[in-house]
């Protein structure tokens, strides 16, 4: 009956993480999946989230279905977080927000919506991008194209080529942009480049779709929302999917949201209605618990301040690990420039290692990176950074 079903080749990130879990070598090091581990190599339970959970559990009663669009307190907390409380777009009721199953769920609901209402639009993805972006949009039967982004020779951004490609894109094309902490390269647009991009988006009547999965890991919670606020200030219509997996260390709770900024409140209401329809056809309504943790943390001034300090701490620890890795590698390979570890931002660095070198790292040293050469620097700690640098130096030859 199922003989015609083809074998699944696996996912470049999640299947690698599964392989890591099965690796019996005690010294193995997981720098593959985008998860923040603390200095003891554990996924942290943030004290702000723990306290929020205590309160949520204490107050818990019956578990009704949430509305299709999710919990009202979570959705409005997300809007304030992304746009800043009282932003004119919020005051005007121009933003339609749904609680989603992680930001992947927000991307998927957005992709289905785009396929229904902008069926001829292609989706432009950065070259490279998160492996699953293409899968999500192609899974919604949208055509995916790419725009130049990462410059392998300089380790920087091909901003002019990116703008040129977007200027040549057909009107109403969707442009997927990483709002901060680009995955996989760690190379972001500067604030000035974001401002330069706005007229390109406007003139070509492009549809920006921001992915904000790493809020707080770049420069800070507020700072990392700047691209969202800029596009909203400029009066553009756009989509933004955001996640609390990383920022609240709530990976398995699958907490995220999708917001669509519309020209006016009447359109936002229609968009929200169609997003609800999309959700109903997919999974009916989102789960309750994780979203309530998010709403509690964001809705209580003390927990919100605690959370901000915790995110600052995680970001600073990653920066310290970047410096440590850079220092050991520069000492071991004095002729090479490892400056990219210091300039790239967020959880990831693009090491430039070839797939063969990445395979050697895994097979000979038990150090797991994604085969593209992406390293999750948030998996480094004081106990494994030296071994990682030694292994890298060895495969670099
Ligand atoms: C990653 O890029 O490693 C994370 O976003 C996890 C995932 O789902 O791929």
TrEMBL record:
<keyword id="KW-0032">Aminotransferase</keyword>
<dbReference type="GO" id="GO:0030170">
    <property type="term" value="F:pyridoxal phosphate binding"/>
</dbReference>
<dbReference type="InterPro" id="IPR004839">
    <property type="entry name" value="Aminotransferase_I/II_large"/>
</dbReference>
<protein>
    <submittedName>
        <fullName>Aromatic-amino-acid aminotransferase</fullName>
        <ecNumber>2.6.1.57</ecNumber>
    </submittedName>
</protein>
<keyword id="KW-0808">Transferase</keyword>
<keyword id="KW-0663">Pyridoxal phosphate</keyword>
<comment type="similarity">
    <text>Belongs to the class-I pyridoxal-phosphate-dependent aminotransferase family.</text>
</comment>
<dbReference type="InterPro" id="IPR000796">
    <property type="entry name" value="Asp_trans"/>
</dbReference>
<dbReference type="InterPro" id="IPR015422">
    <property type="entry name" value="PyrdxlP-dep_Trfase_small"/>
</dbReference>
<dbReference type="InterPro" id="IPR015421">
    <property type="entry name" value="PyrdxlP-dep_Trfase_major"/>
</dbReference>
<dbReference type="GO" id="GO:0042802">
    <property type="term" value="F:identical protein binding"/>
</dbReference>
<feature type="domain" description="Aminotransferase class I/classII large">
    <location>
        <begin position="29"/>
        <end position="390"/>
    </location>
</feature>
<dbReference type="GO" id="GO:0033585">
    <property type="term" value="P:L-phenylalanine biosynthetic process from chorismate via phenylpyruvate"/>
</dbReference>
<dbReference type="Pfam" id="PF00155">
    <property type="entry name" value="Aminotran_1_2"/>
</dbReference>
<comment type="subunit">
    <text>Homodimer.</text>
</comment>
<dbReference type="InterPro" id="IPR015424">
    <property type="entry name" value="PyrdxlP-dep_Trfase"/>
</dbReference>
<dbReference type="GO" id="GO:0004838">
    <property type="term" value="F:L-tyrosine-2-oxoglutarate transaminase activity"/>
</dbReference>
<dbReference type="GO" id="GO:0005829">
    <property type="term" value="C:cytosol"/>
</dbReference>
